[in-house]
Amino acid sequence: MCSRFVPPVQEVIEEYWGLEPNAHPAWAPSIHPRAPGPFIRAKDGGRELVVGQWALIPNFAKTAKLPFSTNNARSEELAQKASYRDPWKHGQRCIIPALSFDEPNWETGKNVWWRFHRADGMPWGLAGIWNTWIDYATGEVVESYSMLTINADDHPLMRRMHKPDPAFGPDEQDKRSVIPIEIGDVDPWLHGNVEEASRLLRLAPVEVFTARPVIEKQQQTSLL
Predict the structure, then answer these.
(1) 159-189 core/surface letters (b: 16 or more CB in 10 A; e: else)
(2) How many Å apart are CA 146 and CA 52, to the nearest integer?
(3) What is the strand order of the sheet 5-6 is part of?
(4) DSSP-based three-state secondary structure for 136
(5) Any signal peptide, and if so, which residues (predicted)?
(6) Domains recognised in the chain with CATH numbers
């Protein structure tokens, strides 16, 4: 499951995804769960940029602070899971723009973060779903979104990520990957029906990715 990513600056998002310039709250250089970040959704036949919490708040939630994690959503369970089935049914799909995202690799026996860029140098447009939650006690409106994932057990690169679960065998791990939406598929993803969108829930070929271990600050200092 993805737990941190780096979004482009607003001007890059607007240019790459063909959005009208607009004023938005600032977001951090790196986004973590429950922090505000940018996402793109359908509006009036077009697209709009929104800033919302990375962790979808379902309509049934009593408060915006959930006792469970919703930053990632398994795409295979969207139609069944209570937190996601209404946004999925109502076409509340979004694009999450990212210059890179990080995943943990445990092949050495400990967590080594890897960073993933696109091999063509373009931003990622990652599949997500969104919701608008209203606190009826205060009138507060909170935008939020979840990043979708898909099984990656057979993917040459993404199956190497995440800590193995000792309760399951090597072929039962349910390794996960984010789902890139290519630029030519943005409109079908945002505006299409559920069947059309479902066809875009697929793994990207390994050649789309470029990945390497992250050199953390303390490691960089020791190399100087």
Answers:
(1) bebbeeeeeeeeeebebbbbbbbeeebbeeb
(2) 10
(3) 5-6, 100-105, 112-118, 209-213
(4) coil
(5) none
(6) 5-223 (3.90.1680.10)
CB atoms within 10 A of CB 197: 22
**Contact between residue 202 and residue 182 where contact means Cβ atoms under 8 Å apart:** no
Q: How far apart are CA 164 and CA 152, in angstroms?
A: 13
DSSP letters along 19-86, please?
A: ----------SSB-TTSEEEEEEEETTEEEEEEEEES---TT-SSSS-SS--SEEEGGGTTT-TTTHH
**What span, in angstroms and rounded, lies between the C-alpha atoms of 207 and 71?**
26
Which pair of tokens denotes residue 108? 């050495």
Tens digits of residue pLDDT in 67-93 = 999 999 999 999 999 999 999 999 999
The amino acid occupying position 105 is N
Nearest to 19 by CA among 28, 10, 27: 10
* pLDDT one-digit tens code per residue, 195-207: 999 999 999 999 9
